[in-house]
Design goal:
Elements lengths: L1 H16 L8 H13 L3 H5 L11 H11 L6 E7 L2 E9 L5 E11 L2 E5 L13
Antiparallel strand pairs: 1-2, 2-3, 3-4
Length: 128
């Protein structure tokens, strides 16, 4: 019986220590995503996405593609759009061609997230 109580206590402690998903502000989300991309932290990047908008392997696959760019021109910023804000990552690939990804920012219960579904009107179309 004490083993079961100990196990439940341990699991509760792990859940308590796990940081909440998302970020408290768009600026904090930007900082978290930037750190995850630069540090190749798939779990950190996964934490930035709204529930059920990306699959489990998406963050790791995305980071693999970013690393394959071998770019030293990576920028990540939050930009306003007609529907709110987008987080935009720009870089150049090894040949110098521009690369861009944009995600809409969404607020859910006072936490900010990236929507994994690409915005229909992307800030990537605008000049940097």
């Amino acid at each position: 019986m004490s083993v079961i109580v100990g196990w439940i206590t341990f699991i509760g402690f792990l859940l308590w220590r796990e940081p909440p998903a998302g970020s408290p502000s768009p600026e904090a989300l930007l900082v978290a995503v930037r750190a995850s991309v630069i540090g190749s932290d798939a779990d950190g990047l996964a934490n930035a996405f709204s529930t059920d908008t990306v699959g489990n392997s998406y963050p790791a696959s995305y980071l693999t593609k970013v690393r394959s760019l071998e770019s030293d021109s990576l920028t990540i910023e939050v930009v306003p759009d007609g529907q709110g804000q987008q987080l935009v990552m720009r870089a150049t690939d090894h040949s110098g061609a521009p690369v861009c990804t944009a995600w809409q920012l969404v607020n859910d219960d006072q936490r900010w997230f990236l929507d994994g579904v690409p915005p229909l009107t992307s800030a990537c179309a605008a000049a940097p």
